Amino acid sequence: MTVRSDIETGRDLTGKIALVTGATSGIGRAVAKRLAAQGATVLVHGRDVNRGVQAIEEIQLTGGSARFLPADLSDPGAIAGLVEEAGAVDILVNNAGTVWFGPTPGLDAAGFDHLFSANVRAAYLLTAGIAPGMGARGSGVIVNLGSIAASGGFAAGAAYGATKAALESFTRAWAAEFGPLGVRVNSVAPGPVLTPIQPAEESNALGQSTILKRPARPEEIAAVIGFLASPDAGYMTGATVAVDGGYLAL
């Protein structure tokens, strides 16, 4: 009997360098493992050294290649340092970010600025630092982590949804800007996902509002990103792929 692994991939990214931000937990960690399984050497970004080491060990135990690059993405200087340390990157996954839901008057100016710094400015500065090198080499892939909050109207999600809408706008603009240089840019828009950022009971409750009546596993989001990063998605750019259990179809 043939036993099939949970993540069954080819080695279509062998020789590629992938930088995944926020890769020490949740979706980012699953993406790092997925891209490593596809053959990429993964640069695991995060702030927590212990979680970073754990993520690297998980990848190495399955035969993958990875190293940890710590950086505080709220600091433009640290972003510049991360770009320099990462070197020639073939795949950039802008996953790092934070979440805030609540009534509009409940978010003050400092909180608003923090949310946009983490979710929007960091991705912008990283891409500005990395995409030109991809273009100079004639190839590259960028994947942005959006959300259904960018397209759906959520009473408690005005600011958060705006940050994710900005990432979708970046996706289209960067596809137009860097596409002629051989760089593809896409985004994914997850619905509810079982991650440490949200209590499981909340994710399960939100999952009931989807067609599939459940939240996603991080590995299911990672599988789509693995496809977008692969040669199989070679004619896709400027697109946002909903991975939401059919939520936006309702």
What this model shows, in words?
The protein has helices at about 25-35, 50-60, 75-85, 110-135, 160-180, 200-205, 220-230, and strands spanning about 15-20, 40-45, 65-70, 90-95, 140-145, 185-190, 240-245. The chain has about 250 residues and is an alpha/beta fold. It has one domain: 3-Layer(aba) Sandwich (Rossmann fold). The protein has a seven-stranded parallel sheet, with helices on both faces. About 45% of the residues are buried. The model is unreliable at about 1-5 (pLDDT under 50).
Q: How would you sum up this structure in a few lines?
A:
This protein is an alpha/beta fold and 250 residues long. The protein has helices at residues 26-37, 49-61, 76-86, 109-137, 158-178, 200-207, 218-229, and strands at residues 17-20, 41-46, 65-70, 91-94, 140-145, 183-190, 240-243.
Q: What topology emerges from the helices and strands here?
A:
Layout: E1 17-20, H1 26-37, E2 41-46, H2 49-61, E3 65-70, H3 76-86, E4 91-94, H4 109-137, E5 140-145, H5 158-178, E6 183-190, H6 200-207, H7 218-229, E7 240-243
CATH first level: which class?
Answer: Alpha Beta
Mean pLDDT across all amino acids:
94
Tell me the radius of gyration. 17 Å
Q: What structural category characterises the helix and strand content?
A: alpha/beta
Percent of residues in helices comes to 40-55%
Work out the number of β strands: 7
Biggest sheet character: 7 strands, parallel
**Which outline best applies?**
globular
Give the N-terminus to C-terminus distance in angstroms: 41 Å
In CATH terms, what is the architecture?
A: 3-Layer(aba) Sandwich
**Helix-strand sequence:** EHEHEHEHEHEHHE
What is CATH's topology name? Rossmann fold
CATH superfamily: NAD(P)-binding Rossmann-like Domain
Hey, roughly how much beta strand do the residues contain? Answer: 15-25%
**Strand adjacency order, main sheet:** 3-2-1-4-5-6-7
Helical region count?
7
